[in-house]
């Protein structure tokens, strides 16, 4: 609550409470120019475990924000969360987004399409405009994968369908994500065994995975992750799933090492592979 009061005080009219009871908030961020060219709406939902154990659930909304721009900004926000576990991070997120918008305004990036930008909330709008912004966010074409128990728990032992994402290759290292709907730890084990039957997947340098299963009766999440030798990669993958608020899903990211060290870039590729398959 202290964090929300502080943000409301700092950002004034740009900060909006969409639903105080559900802890849904929206903030309009711009590039700080007298006549802003680049603007973006950040909507956050604060779960009960925030900030101690759960990240905010967020949506980024701007007509120009697509593809690589979306990936890079989302990665930056997730890095901030991972680096500040257990701490309040909304101010850091807002200022990171503002920094990106200022960079865009100062660079040679073409201005966003004026017609599209006009769909956003007008500077002179009153608070009701934010509700329109919030509805636009809800209608964003990016759809997150979530499976309910009824969709996948017909027979516990039955092998769930496994989906394979598009591979990403960088400096001879290749990354590929695999996804399956799961509602029990036994299904997780069954899917992993099935994946490892594939000689190419079994021969990967690392098979990093994470899963989240929502237990309806206990109103809690059963979740776990595995680094498979890639230090902290499983935990990062699980954090991504928490931030995207996905459940009843297992995500495995295979990496085939190509002989050239990638440094921190390897985590970006793991994240991007996982996010791509979750939002496809």
Automatic annotation (TrEMBL):
GO terms for biological process: GCN2-mediated signaling; regulation of translational initiation. InterPro entries: Impact, Impact_N, Impact_N_sf, Ribosomal_Su5_D2-typ_SF, RWD_dom, UBQ-conjugating_enzyme/RWD, UPF0029_Impact_CS. PROSITE patterns: RWD, UPF0029. Keywords: Cytoplasm, Repressor, Stress response, Translation regulation. GO terms for cellular component: cytoplasm. The keyword Repressor applies. It is found in: Cytoplasm. This is IMPCT protein. The gene is Impact.
């Amino acid at each position: 609550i202290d964090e929300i009061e502080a943000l409301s005080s700092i950002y004034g009219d740009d900060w909006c409470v969409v639903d105080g009871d559900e802890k849904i908030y929206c903030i309009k961020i711009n590039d700080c120019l007298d006549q802003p060219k680049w603007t973006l709406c950040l909507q956050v939902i604060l779960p009960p475990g925030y900030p101690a154990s759960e990240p905010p659930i967020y949506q980024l909304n701007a007509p120009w924000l697509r593809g690589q721009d979306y990936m890079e900004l989302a990665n930056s926000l997730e890095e901030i969360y991972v680096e500040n576990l257990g701490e309040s991070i909304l101010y850091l997120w807002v200022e990171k987004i503002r920094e990106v918008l200022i960079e865009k305004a100062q660079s040679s990036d073409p201005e966003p399409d004026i017609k599209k930008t006009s769909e956003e909330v007008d500077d002179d709008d009153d608070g009701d405009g934010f509700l329109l912004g919030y509805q636009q966010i809800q209608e964003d074409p990016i759809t997150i994968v979530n499976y309910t128990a009824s969709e996948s728990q017909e027979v516990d032992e039955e092998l769930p369908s496994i989906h394979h994402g598009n591979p990403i290759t960088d400096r001879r290292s290749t990354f590929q994500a695999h996804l399956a709907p799961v509602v029990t730890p036994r299904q997780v084990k069954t899917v992993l065994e099935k994946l490892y039957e594939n000689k190419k997947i079994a021969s990967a340098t690392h098979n990093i995975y994470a899963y989240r299963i929502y237990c309806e009766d206990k109103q809690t999440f059963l979740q776990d992750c595995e680094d498979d030798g890639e230090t902290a990669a499983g935990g990062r993958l699980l954090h991504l799933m928490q931030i995207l608020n996905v459940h009843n899903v297992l995500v495995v990211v295979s990496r085939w090492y190509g002989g050239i060290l990638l440094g921190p870039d390897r985590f970006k590729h793991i994240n991007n592979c996982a996010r791509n398959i979750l939002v496809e």
